[in-house]
Amino acid sequence: MDLTIAGILALDGLTNGAIYALLALATVLVFAVTRVIFIPQGEFVAFGALTLALLQAGKVPGTVWFLLALTAAAAASDLWRGWRDRRGAARTALRMLRTAAYPVAVSALAIWAAPRGWPLLAQAALTLALVTPFGVLIYRLAYESLADASVLVLLIVSVGVHFALVGLGLFFFGAEGFRNPSFWEQRFSVGPLVISGQTLIIFAAALALIVMLWLFFEHTLHGKALRATAVNRLGARLMGISSTDAGRVSFTMAAFVGALSGLLIGPTTTVFYDSGFLIGLKGFVAAVFAGLASYPLALVGALGVGLLESFGSFWASAFKEVIVFGAILPVLLWRSLRDPHGEEH
Amino acid sequence: MTSSLRRRAFPAFALLMLALPALPVPDFWITQSNYIGLYALVALGLVLLTGVAGLTSFGQAAFVGVGAYTAAFLATKVGVSPWLTIWIGLALAAAAALVLGAITLRMSGHYLPLATIAWGLALNYTMANMEWLGKYDGLLGIPTLKFFGIDLGSGRPLHVLIWAIALAAALAVTHLLDSRPGRAIRALKQGSTMAEAMGISAFRYKMLAFLIAALLAAVSGWLFAHFQRSVSPSPFGLNKGIEYLFMAVLGGIGNVWGAFLGSAAVRLVEDQLQVLLPQLIGTSGNFEVIVFGVVLVLVLKFAPDGLWTFVGRWAPAAPRARDWEGAPPLPARDKPVRGELLLEVDAVRKAFGGLVAVNDVSFSIRAGDIVGLIGPNGAGKSTTFNLITGVLALTGGAVRWRGQPVHGLPSRQIARRGVSRTFQHVKLVPDMTVLENVALGGYLRSRSGALRAMLRLDREEERQLFAEADRQLARIGMAQHGNELAGNLALGPQRLVEIARALATDPALLLLDEPAAGLRHKEKQALGDVLRQLKAEGLSILLVEHDMDFVMNLTDRIVVMEFGTKLLEGTPAEVQASPAVRAAYLGTEH
What's CA A55's distance to the chain center, in Å? Predict the structure, then answer.
């Protein structure tokens, strides 16, 4: 290996690492606020990439029907709860309307816009608008009524959600894989390295999102409320912060981050309905590196995972996954030595 | 329906499953039943690990793969006898489990499942990429098992072996759960503080549960290889690992027979769905995972005990038969002579960051003393208590037990020396009976390990343990409640049971952390009577308490704390007369 190859590999690794970083941040965020270890984080990546690909092809993406199906289920649960708690027809109807209004509106827009061949950026925005509501719907359907269950139960629920989403992904998107066009075709030469516009976009988007998350958590009341919930759910609730709302917000953010990652990664690799899982898990390895708690460590971990993956595939391409997932063991060992009394009560 | 049903159910079920191949059952059902037995072995391990110990693993399929690939590789490429490969497979699975466990089990519970996800993925990719393991095609032409010249084939005769092993495993796990090590594992779900205070190494028993689960999976893999006669990576992937967990949760994660019920349900339904769903939808694909995922979430929401809830209610557990009359007593320690210096707390200090919660507090306890540690809320009483019992580490000072320093030792080492405690927030195992909870206290006075328990070689010692538990319950006046579930008792009786459990450790010093907190008047009186009686029997007690009246009537000496420092030490009368104490509790006039 010479320096040029090392440079190419490093660039490649850091590019993927930036995407893993976004997913790792979302994973840490969701865990901190809701104690849910959100295995299906990667599914949003696949949904984002596939939605854009289908919009590009001028078709109505399966996302629309998927979203409407979840919305129907959530509205049905509103109806059932209204009936169970005898809330009255008007209030129940209002609740159902509130659940359904946005997803139905955005679905209608997507159906109308799909054959019209919108420019790439508009379609990307539409994709984000379509995939983001999945977060809150999944939270409501799977987790909300179990909010006080143990981490273990929530983890097993996550696995169930992952199963269901992958299966539904196959149903709504089909088994075909897609590769999206780059957002920016320009290429820049820096010495022996060629940096594509897409790479720059990935770095810029990752950086922008990290800065926005930082601003959100440090400088807005909503962000501080989420942090309060993360530290002490009951205490936050006593201060008038709804832990249900906190959960919904964090899942919405996770879905948005996932969809954005899907848009970013779409042009660099072929995405299938089930590709998200492995991508998400790599973000996960980074989140574990951070003890599911520290955002800066998650960023460092994610870049490390990206580098490990790119260098691993150069030296032993068949074993790159083995290397990446095997690396979690020394990471856990390091955490175990650093923080041996992680007992939860 | 009575418990006699339960007693007869196992032999009847075992007989049916072992005789099934001889009955006119179609081959299709024998094959299904073979799969159910194989799956149940794996799910059984998850019942122990997840339902009982409160940990979980998504990598069980990988352990199955270790057993299967070891059998396949050694039989086809090296020509080793299958009766030898099973031991090699078990050794490899054990080694992997020990490494994963050693790394993750000291940390909080969710790191093990995360590590097993990585392990499952890494192993699967390794299998799929190794030339000598046949890559994605796997290994073909694995010989059938031969038993004393009889070819077990892959159908009816093998069914007998699969089910004999599965039933034996179920029996062994049932036996284990009703034993000294089993109770230790059952105590883990509550967190490790209580277990450690009873002298149990939580790490060791978490490891034991994980190890047994891994070994059961490896046995299933060995059988699988010789049943299918070929192995390929896909049945050992992460998805299959998750499916095993699904089986255990669906059947009933807290019950041995839930594993069998869940395996049967998943196997039979999966087959139907694999045909039905693609027809319904019109394209091929693994759509059954949608149903599995949704059902998994629904089960956890609405029936956390799984399908077994609907079966188990027909056969309630029998109360434990009183078989311990006349059992010889457990070994007891040499009691300190009255007046011997037991505990010396020497200028202990605990700082949480900048906050000094306990500031150079000193006092000592001699054998036969009843010492009260009192003070207003936030005085640092419970922190002092945790420093003595090894739950928290000291920032400075020393704690000596009979002249030897004990600070820095883990709780279980301090318990071993004869210091036993109760908890301010009661820590009983709610789904164990009162007797079983008290028997947990006898852990350090007994020796039987997991293997003896599985083989039921521990019955003599169990009788001793239950005789001791019964004796301690009688001592606190609760002998008639022995067979009730601890979780069904009111707070007052629960606190008494905690005292009985502490007494079962044969302590030289009993530490009671706010035993009267939250008790009603009558319950307080009952507790006071018990403590007076223990005092009369010569036991030394340190009582951390809030309730002044309660302490005044019981103790020889009182240590008063305020804002982390010792305010005063003296007899109850001296403390009552002290203006400083009055000021601490009621404030001063200005």
Answer: 20
Beta-carbon contacts below 8 Å between A and B: 150
pLDDT by residue (tens digit) across A192-247?
778 888 888 888 988 898 888 888 888 888 888 888 887 777 888 888 888 888 88
pLDDT score recorded for residue A340: 55
pTM summary value: 0.90
Average pLDDT over residues B115-139: 85
Q: What is the pLDDT of residues B130-173, one digit of tens each?
A: 888 878 888 888 888 887 777 777 778 899 999 999 999 999 99
Distance CA A259, CA A209 (A): 13
Q: Are B348 and B403 in contact (CB under 8 A)?
A: no
Strand-pair category, B509-513 with B419-421: parallel
- Distance from the B193 Cα atom to the nearest Cα atom in chain A, whole angstroms: 9
Question: Can you tell me the distance from the alpha carbon of B9 to that of A343, in angstroms, rounded to the nearest whole number?
Answer: 40
Domains and CATH numbers, chain B: 3-237 (no CATH), 335-418+507-590 (3.40.50.300), 430-506 (no CATH)
Conformational region of residue A242, where left means phi above 0, alpha means psi within -120 to 50, and beta covers everything else = beta
Q: Is the pLDDT at B476 greater than 80, yes or no?
A: yes
| Res. A344: pLDDT tops 80 | no
Measure the CA–CA gap between A130 and A102, rounded to whole angstroms.
Answer: 10
User: Which of A84, A143, A163 should be substituted to probe chain B, the one whose Cβ sees the most B Cβ atoms within 10 Å?
Assistant: A163
Task: Please state the domain extents for chain A.
Answer: 23-277
Residue B424, pLDDT > 90, answer: no
Residue B254 exposure: Cα atoms within 13 Å on the Cβ side: 12
Q: Three-class SS of residue A271?
A: strand
Write the residue in B110, B191, B288 that is nearest to A155 by C-beta.
B110
- Indicate the SS3 state at residue B460: helix
Average pLDDT, chain A: 86
Contact B125 A319 (CB under 8 A): yes
Environment class of B360 (CB within 10 Å of its CB; exposed 0-12, middle 13-18, buried 19+):
middle
Min Cα distance A66 → chain B (Å) is 13
Q: Is the ipTM of this complex over 0.90?
A: no
pLDDT the model gives residue A342:
46
CA torsion, points B496, B499, B54, A226, in degrees to nearest 10? Answer: 80
Confidence of residue B534 (pLDDT cuts 50, 70, 90): confident
Window A:246-285, CB contacts with B under 8 Å? 278, 281, 284-285
- Stated length of chain B: 590
Chain centre distance of CA A289: 18
Which A residues in the span 306-335 are in contact with B, Cβ-Cβ below 8 Å? 318-319, 321-322, 325-326, 328-329, 332-333, 335
* Contact between B114 and A146 using a beta-carbon 8 Å cutoff: no
Q: Give the span between the Cα atoms of B1 and B380, in whole angstroms.
A: 54
C-alpha distances in angstroms, B374 versus B63, B420, B558, B581? 54, 19, 7, 10
Spatial distance between the Cα atoms of B21 and B30, rounded to a whole number of angstroms: 7
> Strand, coil or helix: what is B400?
strand
Partnered with residue A189 across adjacent β-strands are A194
- Picking from A37, A146, A336, the nearest residue to B301 by CB comes out as A146
Q: What is the distance between the alpha carbons of residues B502 and B459, in angstroms, rounded to a whole number?
A: 23
More confident residue, B516 or A45: A45
User: Using CA atoms, how far apart are residues B223 and B161, in angstroms rounded to an integer?
Assistant: 9
